[in-house]
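Fill in residues.
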């Protein structure tokens, strides 16, 4: 039975360690039950009272592909803290043949178990509602005193002692944008002029057409800061006069685009798994029409499309999806190659999850703790002007520590699992039968077997889920010791099979994940 793990923590009194604990217990339960975990879905610092959680929604969408039968959660409140959402999404998963199981709450399918599940969900919802009520009460009291309670500071303002004050440097830019737009100047011309004058975003990048999309309708600029539909008087100083603001709102209504016509649903099977090998940006699904009206579909580098900052060519959707599966079938999923792959994977698995890696991570965590202690001491002795940089450094270290703790948990879990060549060959055999031209078979290979793909114009690197695991990032790829420093070079020699020719793939391992480099010598047409 295949399963996925869903883990989550909210920002209230929890840290990345909460994820570490959930993963450890969930994997232990899966091992005890003989269940294979094929993927993790993790939402960090996101409340469970709402369903708009990126990885949660991705999990629900993936369930429709029927590649797993269980969703493992630490407790039911990790899945949802809202009874309505819990019931709706459990029903949707049930339609796909997927069941939600709680590791820490022994709930059966008996009538008593159903009552217990409802009780636990009610308790979780009560906890969230009560916590939310207390937080909102505190926020209202702070706002009544004219204090800003968090969130992004609107452009044109600055935060001083928790109060929103007009920023003399950026407020004139807001006035210019409103005045120009009220007079009928197109947004693009306004942005182009600001870029010509050297105005930049908060991150130092050139402004884009969407830079002021949220600013133009924001009533905070006429002194009416709104929180949850309620205007909080005195929280924001006025920057724009009422007449100009009204003209802008009228023009926004007139220029609002009509809803796009319904489009045919096209499944981009590689979405979320394919990235540009040149810059690491996602390759996203796009469509276009030829001069004769024919619609064509392709994957495009996000950096090239949005910023014209990459040379990666577009990839035809149908071809690249077929090619990924065809190469996998031809060079990985054959009996003779499966034996060789299994041997190499087991050797690398033992190397990757050795005691040395655990010791190195423990030392790195200890070093971070020592640096954090020094920063805390520095806060006492340093002037207030230096506090912001110290806090920024502490936040960065805390994030690094969280990632390391999660990696350490995975290593310790992996050390308890003995991976054998027989097991790897059995896993590979599950995918050996099928036709790369069959859409359902392609989807199964990509969803379950493929970890991530990096596309170059002359080659592609495919990493495979031999044993679950974290997706190989672009940073992991370019920093891998087994690869040349320039991933675009043509001289990959890592783990080359015997008598490898240009048409043969080359084996690579990054963070214990097995992959292959395939040359693209065939004519796509």
């Amino acid at each position: 039975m295949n399963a996925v793990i869903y883990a989550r923590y909210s920002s209230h009194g929890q840290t990345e360690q909460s994820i570490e604990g959930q993963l450890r217990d969930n994997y232990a339960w899966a091992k005890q039950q003989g269940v294979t975990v094929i993927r993790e879905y993790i939402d960090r610092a996101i409340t469970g009272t709402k369903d708009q959680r990126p990885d949660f929604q991705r999990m629900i969408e993936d369930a429709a592909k029927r590649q797993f039968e269980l969703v493992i959660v630490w407790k039911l409140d990790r899945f949802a803290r809202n009874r309505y959402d819990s019931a709706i999404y459990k029903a949707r998963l049930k339609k796909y043949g997927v069941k939600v199981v709680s590791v820490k709450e022994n709930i059966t399918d008996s009538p008593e178990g159903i009552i217990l599940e409802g009780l636990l969900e009610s308790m979780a919802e009560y906890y969230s509602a009560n916590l939310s009520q207390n937080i909102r009460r505190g926020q209202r009291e702070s706002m009544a005193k004219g204090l800003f309670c968090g969130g992004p500071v609107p452009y044109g303002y600055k935060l001083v002692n928790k109060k929103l004050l007009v920023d003399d440097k950026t407020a004139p830019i807001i006035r210019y944008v409103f005045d120009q737009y009220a007079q009928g100047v197109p947004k693009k011309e306004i942005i182009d002029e600001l870029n010509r004058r050297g105005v930049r975003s908060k991150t130092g990048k050139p402004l884009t057409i969407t830079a002021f999309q949220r600013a133009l309708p924001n009533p905070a600029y006429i002194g009416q800061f709104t929180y949850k539909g309620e205007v909080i008087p005195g929280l924001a100083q006025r920057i724009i006069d009422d007449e100009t603001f009204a003209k802008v709102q009228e023009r926004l209504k007139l220029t609002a685009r009509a809803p796009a016509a319904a489009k045919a649903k096209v499944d981009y099977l590689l979405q979320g798994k394919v990235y540009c090998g040149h810059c690491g940006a996602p390759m996203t699904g796009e469509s276009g029409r030829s001069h004769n009206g024919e619609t064509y579909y392709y994957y495009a580098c996000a950096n090239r499309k949005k910023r014209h900052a990459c040379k990666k060519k577009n990839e035809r959707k149908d071809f690249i999806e077929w090619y990924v599966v065809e190469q996998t079938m031809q060079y990985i999923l054959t009996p003779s190659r499966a034996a060789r792959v299994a041997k190499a994977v087991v050797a690398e698995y033992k190397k990757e999850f050795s005691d040395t890696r655990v010791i190195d991570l423990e030392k790195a965590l200890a070093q971070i703790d020592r640096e954090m202690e020094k920063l805390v001491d520095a806060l006492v002795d340093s002037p207030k002007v230096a506090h912001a940089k110290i806090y920024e450094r502490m936040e960065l270290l805390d994030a690094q520590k969280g990632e390391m703790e999660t990696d350490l948990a995975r290593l310790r879990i992996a050390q308890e699992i003995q991976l054998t060549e027989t097991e790897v060959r059995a896993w590979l055999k599950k995918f050996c039968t099928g036709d790369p031209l069959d859409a359902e078979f392609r989807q199964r290979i990509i969803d379950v077997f493929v970890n991530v793909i990096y596309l170059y114009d002359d080659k592609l690197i495919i990493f495979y889920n031999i044993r679950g695991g974290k997706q190989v990032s672009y940073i992991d790829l370019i920093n891998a010791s087994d690869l040349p420093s320039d991933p675009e070079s043509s001289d990959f020699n890592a783990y080359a099979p015997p008598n490898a020719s240009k048409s043969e793939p080359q084996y690579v391992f990054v963070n214990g994940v097995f992959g292959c480099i395939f040359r693209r010598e065939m004519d796509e047409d």
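The first strand starts at residue 2 and ends at 9.
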